[in-house]
């Protein structure tokens, strides 16, 4: 609730050192940070999460695309690929947007295929 209302200091205090934070709480914090366009803190939270899932990665990738950090979005997708995580249609549309903004025609064609 604190994070969703923009009170990140209070929310972070509840997390403590983050060692015992579950993936759902971490994802909620990331989504809230991204909601308030705080991509750098969301990235830090993502990096510090002891466990991540496809929701964690999707949230960060969407945040990168919305903030115009297309290279970071594609890099995160590459990591997902190495871990054999199947992308949803929403991920692919977002990545096509990133590829188009970068002028990465070959990447965009590969994603489309």
From TrEMBL:
Molecular-function GO terms, alphabetical: RNA binding
Keywords annotated in UniProt: Repeat
Origin: domain of life: Eukaryota
PPR repeats (start-end): 53-87
InterPro entries, alphabetized: PPR_At4g14850-like_plant (IPR046960), PPR_rpt (IPR002885), TPR-like_helical_dom_sf (IPR011990)
Example GO biological process: RNA modification
Entries under Gene3D superfamilies matching the protein: Tetratricopeptide repeat domain
NCBIfam families named among the record's database cross-references: PPR
Name by which UniProt lists this protein: Pentatricopeptide repeat-containing protein
Species name: Lactuca virosa
